[in-house]
Amino acid sequence: MSTLIRRLAAIASAHAAIGQVSPTQSTLIRATLRGIKRVHGMAQAQAKPITLAMLRTLVRSCPEHSVVRTARDRALLLVGFAGGFRRSELVRIAPADLVFSRSGVTVTLRRSKTDPHSRGRTVALPYGLGTLCAVKALKKWLDILQREREDAELRPMFRRVDRYGRVGGALGDAAVGSILRDRMLASGLKADGFSAHSLRAGLVTAAAQAGATTWAIQRQTGHRSECTVHRYIRGISPFKMNASKTALRF
Predict the structure, then answer these.
(1) Helix (H, G, I), strand (E, B) or coil at 224
(2) Most-buried pick from 23, 149, 207, 247 (CB within 10 A)?
(3) What is the pTM (predicted TM-score) of this model?
(4) Residue percentage of the chain with pLDDT more than 70
(5) How confident is the model over 5-38, as pLDDT tens digits?
(6) Which of 231, 210, 184 shows the shortest CA–CA distance to 55?
């Protein structure tokens, strides 16, 4: 069942990339999947969420990584986390999609998995504290990028960086997870169970722990369903933010 879901997700992503409606959204496909779930059930394989403590560790300098690569990695991870972006959304962002202000930066996503008609949506990244500031990390990476490329404004901003710190072509979707896991191993963290989706799951979980409303989380991540958001919120004790505890003032 999990293999089938991954293949359907790949089909949906491919159609979204070319601005077409995915056949996976058809009534027949949805009805068939519901029938399979009722008969066989489905255990969802969920990526472990990146915590704030882990993120602080990941953005530290690594002796084996160049200054350029470190700047790229910091911006990629912090922007991916703060925006709650899907990996396909993250690698498509270009400098032309950014608007900086005193409050932070807004990112215009021109298309995404849940936006097959490319209507676009805007995600705000506010200034953060200390090493977890996505806006400052992004500015530093853009400074490097603009020195490297004359056409940097229109091309995807997250690029390959070789061992000598030279900037290459745009990253593919799969590179986000590879960079995250490589950074985890270089920082002494265990990478089992973590993927690019861990950044998105980490933002949702951390926001929920901090008391953010479901609609605020949905506005940031682009989730259309509250049920989907609830599945992302994990690692929180059922006794925390408990409705009964709040109502009865325990």
Answers:
(1) coil
(2) 207
(3) 0.76
(4) 75
(5) 567 666 766 666 666 677 777 777 777 767 766 6
(6) 184
CA dihedral 146, 147, 150, 154 (to 10 degrees): -20
Tell me the catalytic residues. Answer: 86, 113, 197, 200, 223, 232
- pLDDT tens column, 185-203: 999 999 999 999 999 999 9
Q: Determine how β-strand 104-109 pairs with β-strand 98-100.
A: antiparallel
Nearest Cα neighbor of 72 from 162, 154, 150 is 162
Q: What are the respective helix, strand and coil percentages of the chain, to the nearest 5?
A: 50, 10, 40
Helix/strand/coil for 167: strand
Q: Report helix, strand or coil for 201.
A: helix
Q: What is the dihedral of CA 35, 21, 119, 111, to 10 degrees?
A: 90
Q: Would you call 237 helix, strand, or coil by DSSP?
A: coil
Domain extents in the chain? 1-45, 52-199
- List the beta strands (DSSP E) in 73-117: 98-100, 104-109
pLDDT at 123 over 90: yes
Contact between 33 and 23 under an 8 Å Cβ cutoff? The reply is no
The predicted structure's pLDDT at residue 43:
47
The C-alpha atoms of residue 57 and residue 87 are separated, in whole angstroms, by 21
Name the token pair of 59.
């953005």
CA–CA–CA angle 6, 10, 14 (5° rounding): 170
Q: Beta strands 167-170 and 159-161: pairing type? A: antiparallel
The rounded distance, in Å, linking the Cα atoms of 179 and 176 is 5
Query: Homologous superfamily of 52-199 in CATH?
Result: Intergrase catalytic core (1.10.443.10)
Cα distance between residue 142 and residue 24, in whole Å: 37
Q: Name residue 141's amino acid.
A: W
